[in-house]
Design brief:
The protein has 54 residues and is an all-alpha fold. 85% of the residues lie in helices and 0% in strands. The protein contains two helices and no strands. The chain has helices at 4-28, 33-53. The termini are far apart.
């Protein structure tokens, strides 16, 4: 019974840390419309630069 508080602290800490990491990953994965447009334009430029070499 003496190890119960430590077990609770370790498992609780791991769960809280996991939730915070998951929240951060979900929050940062959403790109703004401006970021999407910039990425599309850059991909288009790279594709056409490679195509002109052939």
């Amino acid at each position: 019974m003496e190890s119960f508080p430590w077990l609770f602290a370790v498992l609780g800490g791991a769960v809280i840390l996991g939730l915070v990491i998951a929240y951060g990953a979900i929050k940062s994965s959403k790109a703004t419309p401006r970021q999407k447009e910039t990425a599309e334009r850059a991909a288009h430029d790279i594709y056409h630069k490679d195509e002109s070499k052939n």
